[in-house]
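Quick one: structure tokens for this chain, please?
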Amino acid sequence: MKFSRSIIAASIALAALAGCSTNNDETPHTFTEARFATYNLSFDRASYEDLVAEMALKRNEQSTLIQRYNNNDASLTDAEKATAKKVIQIRNVAESIQRTRPNVFLLAEFNNDGKGEDMRALNGFHDNYLAHAQNGQKPISFNYKQNIATNTGKPSGYDLDYKFGNTNKGNDAWGFGNYHGQYAFAVFSQFKIDKNNIRTFQNFKWKDMPGETNLKIVKCDDPTKIPAGKSCGDNWYSDEAWQQFPLSSKNHADLPIIIPTPSGEQVIHFLVSHPTPPIWANAANHNVIRNHAEIEFWKDYIESDNYMYDDKGITGGLAAGSKFVIAGDLNADPIQGDGDLTAINDLQKSPLVNIHATIGSQTPTSKGGPECFDLEICTGDNKNTPYIDHITSKSGLRLDHVIPSENLTVTDSGVFWPASDEAGYHLVYDKELGNSKGVSSDHRLVWVDFDLTK
């Protein structure tokens, strides 16, 4: 029985994942199975320092603050109340991770300093939340952490949206963000990350992707959305801005994960990104086109195309025959939604990926997603999806993906979305905090298990 259809099966999966060890928090001498996951944590705070401060709170400080909040302590300031709610959210996210126990996972919407150099928030989350039992769950640890530089909030120097002049933030940044580092992402791993061979593509130019050209104004029915001095069919971006425009709204990163197995070390390339959502598009449909291109990049990369160059100047895609896992909030549902769905469908159906885990019998599912619609808690616009148990966000869309290579053997998968009769339901719905960022996140953790002996 799959985890996604019964939380009880989690204990069986966890026992198997222990490999040659009785504790999957510490990498044993050899591993026979591994769990890879992605989780949009919704830690998009007003500033990076806000997140650092929340993560720096020690366990006793968190508990005292929450107790005062739950007791309606009249002496609590509005700022303390807001922090208490954030601490509750962080603890619930940590508990979700402790319940699913991934060995390797992507942490999306985890703010950083923009360059990915400051580890305070990541270390604080690990040491002050994951390392402590949440609601009776076993603590979990990760020896390897990797912050990733981001284009979100990175000043472009151009007026990219033709509103209010160049603000160097929001839509005038290379990736949408109100400060450099907002909506960034990171990776936690219990296996060694080969840091010397990490590849990032933060500075790869959009123009250098085959078939991509300066965006043209195509939404012509509302003249108020067309910038002054421009007409239908004109290029949206100036030639100068287009020459500098990065493909990645955040980053694309290839992290080689080294896993000790009974037959020797295996390397699985963890290919992670968080493409821009294909909504809030301007008259040139910029977010739809960029989302499509960001996803298509991975298809080209696993096909060993040679047009891409990384931030170290090394050209070419992934070596043929490599094992990989593409993961992230890709902001694309293969069935419906606002985006151009061809890229996500081409990726999921690529002969280089394990289609059993993307469109087949091992596709990650949950019971909580369908129930969310039944209880009219989730957005009803997408209730007509034919695969309602595949959804990964309260929008009713399948946005979060774990896509393994064809040469990886999948044993199990799931979306951590407990239904009301399953353990952990309090992590996805609360009468006061709702079913979104108040209680934990508006996205759900998605995981896939692999047999490393085959």
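The CA atoms of residues 95 and 134 lie 5 Å apart.
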